[in-house]
Amino acid sequence: MDQSKSNSAATDQNSIPLPKRSLTLEFWVGLFFVVAVACGGYLAVGLGDIRIFSSNRYDVIAEFDNISGLKHGASVEIAGVPIGEVTAINLHDPAAHVTLSIDKSVRLRDDDIASIRTKGIIGDRYIKISRGASDTYIEPGQKMTETESVVDFEDIVGKIVHNLGADKSDKDNSDGKK
Fold first, then answer.
1. 27 by DSSP, 3-state: which?
2. What is the DSSP string of 47-77?
3. Where do the domains of the chain lie?
4. How confident is the chain (178 residues) per 10-residue block, as mean pLDDT?
5. Are the C-beta atoms of residues 57 and 95 closer than 8 Å to each other?
6. Are 31 and 63 contacting, i.e. CB atoms less than 8 angstroms apart?
7. How far apart are CA 94 and CA 65, in angstroms?
8. Alpha carbon separation from 165 to 44, 115, 148, 161, 169 (Å, rounded)
9. d(C-alpha 11, C-alpha 7), whole Å
10. What strand order describes the sheet that includes 81-92?
11. pLDDT for res 33
12. 3-state DSSP call for residue 127?
């Protein structure tokens, strides 16, 4: 007689039936945890404005004499509508090269003017693009030639004070000669 058949029949009769599987509390807690971690990661990437996949932007370089107060991540706008951001600021003595990341849906012309402006009275700096009328567009990686640097109020006040001081000394000298 075949002993393997007799042993298997005996184990079938003596085996303990397995309980019916159901979704336990541990399963639901684990599923909630996985979903929570995925949501947290999505928010971290979204709020941090990190681009994991290829973006729909291209880079353009703008050269400025003075970028006082402009920071990495500053907005680039046309007519008050954000179209990009500042992604890099480098010194190429004596000028500053600012890399602008522009949405591909917006094409910049070669006579567009990039100006550094302030939001509000003492707000953050941003770059305002004033549109030109040229039919020639700037290709990705090219340089914008038309730029306006920051209006530095300290320089203006210093020039006014210097000119007022020079006018006063000229008046004193002319009074002494008479």
1. helix
2. HTT---S--SEEEEEEEES--TT--TT-EEE
3. 26-54, 57-155
4. 54 72 82 94 77 76 88 90 91 89 90 88 86 88 84 77 72 55
5. no
6. no
7. 7
8. 56, 32, 29, 6, 6
9. 6
10. 143-144, 57-64, 95-103, 81-92, 75-78, 125-130, 113-118, 147-148
11. 95
12. strand
